[in-house]
Amino acid sequence: FYFEHYIQCHRNTSFVNFVRGVSEYGPCYKIASYSTLRTKLIPDCQMEVEKYVTIVKKSRVTINCTLMSDIWSDMKQRYFINIIAYSPRGVVFSNSFEISKERKAGLFLKDIMCSVIDDIGPNHVVQLIIDNESNFESTGDMLIGKYP
């Protein structure tokens, strides 16, 4: 298995938890078939996640939310900004945008944040938690100016 899938899979917490779960179940454990995964387990899980996301999104109207953002780069030095919405009902990934190094400027980041805030509704966002990178400092100031 390790030769086929490389030794790095051993560092994957999902893989480690899966192996632990199988070992705790015992030698009688039978892995689900491809057909069962495709037609039953994955669709059921997808419906459960969609239901959760719908409940969390609907709750924003009455209990509001916090937007959290972070800029990160991958091994190819591509930059991304992830936006996550938190409310007392739960956390939902809102969006991810690929941004070039040059477009990490405050005005561009402000436009991204404004699109997410406008999508949720400015009256339903009670606070922003943003990266403390210098580009985000000006973004925060611009957002406060637009959404006092």
From TrEMBL:
<protein>
    <submittedName>
        <fullName>DUF659 domain-containing protein</fullName>
    </submittedName>
</protein>
<dbReference type="Pfam" id="PF04937">
    <property type="entry name" value="DUF659"/>
</dbReference>
<dbReference type="InterPro" id="IPR007021">
    <property type="entry name" value="DUF659"/>
</dbReference>
<feature type="domain" description="DUF659">
    <location>
        <begin position="33"/>
        <end position="148"/>
    </location>
</feature>
